[in-house]
Each structure stands twice: as C-alpha cells, then as structure tokens.
Amino acid sequence: MASNWSLRNRVAVTLALFGAVVSLALAVIIYLTSHDLETRLIDDTLVAELDDYVARRQRNPLSLPVRTATIRTYVVAEQGGTHPIPEEVSALGPGRHSLKVDGVGYRAAVREVREQRFVVLYDTSALQRRERGFLLLLSGSVLIVTLISALAGRWLAALIIAPVTELARRVARLHPEDEPTTLAREFPWLEIHQLAGDFDTYLKRLHDFIERERLFTGDVSHELRTPIAVINGATELLMIDPTLDEKNRNRVARISRAATEMGEISAALLALAREQGDASSQSTECDILGIVRELIARYRDFFSHKPVELLLEVGALSDRQVDHAILSMVLGNLLRNALSFTARGEVRIRLDAETIRIEDSGPGLDTANPAELFRPYVRGSQSNGAGLGLSLVWRLCEHEGWQISLENLPGGGTLAQLDLSPSSR
Length: 425
Fold this sequence. Notes:
The chain is α+β, with helices and mostly antiparallel strands. It is 53% helix and 16% strand. The chain folds into three domains: 7-158, 2-Layer Sandwich (Beta-Lactamase); 174-281; 283-424, Histidine kinase-like ATPase, C-terminal domain (Heat Shock Protein 90, 2-Layer Sandwich), CATH 3.30.565.10. It has nine helices and eleven strands. Strands 6-8-9-11-10 form a five-stranded mixed sheet, with helices on one face. It starts with 6 loop residues before the first helix and ends in a 6-residue tail after the last strand.
C-alpha cells in the first residue's frame, strides 16, 4: 500500500527518532551514573560514621547513639544494646541494606563486633526527592531535544532533498510528445545527476516510440487507402457491366461491401491507436438498425452450415452520434462469437434506445469472472481463437465511452450487452 508521507517528512521523523533515542540513552546513562555515585557517597558516609561510633563505644560503652537529621545509630545486643530498636533494624545482618522504617527510606550499614551489631542508618528521603526532580529534568530535556531534532530535521531535509523536489517538479511538467530534454545537465549532484540522466534516456525512448507509432499509423492509413480505392473502383465498373449475370453481380456486391468494411475497420483501428483519433473516425449520426441488418446478412451466409436461427427484435430506436466502423466492429465480434459457440438453436439480437443485447443458446461461459475474457490473450476452454477479439471490443468501447458486459443466462447460453448511453462515459 502506497504511503502519503513525503521524503521531507520521512527524513524529519528519522532525525527526530534518532535524536530521541540518543538523548534518552544519554539521560538513562546520566541518571544511573548519578544514582550510583550518590549511593557510593552515602555508603562511604555510613562506613565513616560506623567506624567512629564503634570506636566511641569501645572507649565508652555508655556512649549515647547518634541522632541527627540524617543519621541514626543502634547497637543490637543481649546486654548493653540501645533501646528502642525498630523491628526492621534488629533483623538486619552484616553488610549494606536499603529499607523503610515508619514509611521513611533509609540506607543502612551493619557490622558485628564482639557479639554486638552496630547499625548506622542514613535518611534517603531528601535524596529520593532530588532524584525525582532530576528525573523530571532529564525527561524534559529528552522531549526538548526530540522537538529540536524534529524541527532541525525538517529544515535540513528541505535543504537536502531540494534537488529531488525540483527534479520531480520538472519531470511532472514533461510530456512524452515533447522534444527530449537534458535534465542531467542541470543537476550536478552525483545521485540526482544519475537519476535525471535515467529520466532523460527514458523520455527519449518514449518520444522515439511515439514518433514511430505516429509515422506507422500515418503510413498504414495512406497505404491502405490506395488498394481499397482500387477495389472499390473495380467493383463499381463491374456492377455497371451489362454482361454480368445476377449470380456474379451478387459476388461483386459482396466484394464491394467487404472493401468498404475494410476501409472503415482501418479507420477505426487507427483511431484506437491514436490518443485523439483523426478526422476519418469522428462520430456521426448513424443508422444502428442498418448496421445490425448488414451484420445479420453477412454472418447468416458465413454460418449457413449451422442449424442456428438469427433473430432480430427491435424496440425503441434513437439515432445516436456513434462511429459506424467502430460499432460495426464491436457488434460483429460479439455476433461472430455467439454464432461460433452455438451449435444449434438461436442467436437473438434485441435493439433498444440505449442498449444492444445479443443472446445465444450456446453452452455459456465457463468462468466465474466473465470480465477476465476482455483481457488480451485470455480465452475460454472451448475457444480456438487467439483471445484478442473481446480485448479489441473492450478497447473500442473504452475509446467511445460505452459499457460492455458478458454474463450467463439463467436457462443456459450467454448474454452480451452493449450500453451506448452517455452516462457510461
């Protein structure tokens, strides 16, 4: 799934995340280092106080315990101990400890001397308050650094990707039919220069391809018109020949119709190959019923060997601005497919004001998604063709703004429906 993020925002977010991670890592290191240093200082203080108190008790067993704002001392012993002693303190063994007494946090150092345990407590509540304030300061610093990284990243990203933005803007204004440009000369940066050079090469190849296609369609249009005109002229002369019998006259008439159809098909295919079409393929008011009757007459002769009846039902008709050749090609392909896949029975053509329906009594479609049959080289399992007829029908309908659909009929057979309404454009 495509992302709507710009490259500038991606760079800014990346730098912001990098700044956040680095600042957070530094804050954690500073906090842990500070906490460890303060703990060491408290432990050193406790050891010093413990040494002093032990020395004083040894000189004077009646020496009073120390009671200051942060220091408390105790002697735990069966005889000569200090009283009262909190239960949490009396349970401590030799070493260093962290504990709470009456809800106040302390750091303790304990030493045994001649069956006596000397305990020194250091009140850490003020230290904990300072640590909380220091933690808030570090958190605020992380947020500030992250914000600064995001703003600086967005500004730096705009400077860094400015050549890419300019290249994208220049490429967006180019058209394949324009003369090839030399974008690479205007972008000296190595990566952008290479990218612009690739665009130059691609646009030149695309421009050359369009030129070849334009020349080809023009050559085809010119070269086909001459032989078709010769065939039409020859058939006209044959038709006025009084010595020609009726049987041969009908054959010449079929040749004349085929030559005319060939000219219309050439014009339709050339219009399909070009983006805007040409003057030979403009939509004009057309007799749709006449086209259908021509196709019925043509394909009735082609499929006269099959026991299939061609039926025409005419509803409300309206003259429409459609291209005669394109409509003839679309309906001809659909009618030929219906007759090809119907072994016996009937093929029915229904004309309405906006739609043309072709129904057959054949086996129907063998695919769950009939729309796939409109793709090039896709064909049903019973088809012997190349899979291009329905693809051509689809492209012609798209060119004209029509809608075409295939579906299976409930009682068997296939329905092809062509919608000529303007709302389908």
